[in-house]
Design a protein that fits this description.
It contains ten helices and ten strands. With 253 residues, the protein is of the alpha/beta class. Helix 2 links the parallel strand 1 and strand 2.
């Protein structure tokens, strides 16, 4: 079923943005992305989890519903907070959105159509992720210009298809797959695990569009790396365990 009326997007879609502000650039990126997304007129939930609120007094958050959760841990437990937003979303479709990334509206519309045609998870880009320089990011924070970016020659950040940044899900079917895997307590291979797990469980997953995903620059803080060598081992083993399970084993797990 195709989306007959794009004005109905606000009835179909919730955008979920979990965030921990660890730099001024991260906060500026959120401002840029929210301003860009406000034109969709759909529900946007920004959940900030930290020791104290940094975003609470920001007037530009009026474009979104703001939730603060006090969390004194140094590790941003992103999978848990995504699940919290999934539970409080009541739309058919949820787009889980990193605070620093953006795509064109048409890419998102293509993903919504695929979800309505039976896909459980769609990555609304072609698998290419372009990391913008500090200079280009500064320009995009003033105004996102997709045409300018399309004419720039940039290299892919990954040497393979990316499966992070944004994933659009059919809320009910995705929750049947377990939602986010909360065994990933911090930064790690949760993007790849999510893709493999949903496929093992027999659900349809795809990338769409001929266009890439763009990532605004920000410094890499503590939550952009494994927390420790032991953490790296534990989370990688969890990923390998999931990948080697059958559908029946995974359903029990």
């Amino acid at each position: 079923m195709q989306l007959q009326n794009m004005n109905k997007i606000n009835e179909l879609l919730t955008i979920a943005i979990p965030v921990r502000v660890d730099s001024e650039e991260r906060k500026a990126n959120l401002h840029t992305v929210l301003d860009f997304l406000s034109g969709l007129r759909c529900r946007i939930i920004v959940l900030e989890a930290d020791d104290k609120p940094i975003l609470e007094t920001e007037v530009w958050l009026g474009n979104a519903e703001y939730i603060f959760v006090k969390d004194t841990s140094s590790v941003f437990y992103r999978t848990m907070y995504i699940n919290k937003i999934l539970q409080m979303s009541h739309t058919e479709i949820v787009a889980v959105w990193d605070v620093d990334v953006f795509i064109s509206y048409s890419q998102l519309y293509d993903a919504l159509c695929l979800i309505q045609n039976g896909y459980t998870m769609v990555f609304p880009y072609n698998g290419q992720c372009f990391m913008l320089t500090e200079q280009i990011s500064y320009r995009m924070r003033k105004k996102i210009d997709m045409e300018y970016l399309r004419n720039k020659k940039m290299e892919m950040y990954f040497g393979r298809k990316s499966c992070g940044g944004i994933h659009v899900v059919h809320r009910e079917r995705y929750l049947q797959c377990g939602g986010e895997n909360e065994r990933f307590t911090g930064w790690g291979p949760e993007d790849a695990e999510r893709l493999r797990r949903v496929r093992i469980l027999g659900h349809k997953v795809t990338w769409c569009s001929q266009s890439p995903l763009y990532h605004l620059h920000h410094p890499r803080g503590n939550n952009s790396f494994f927390q420790s060598e032991q953490d790296a081992i534990t989370l990688r083993l969890e990923f390998v365990k999931i990948c080697n399970m059958t559908k029946e084993e995974l359903q029990s797990y």
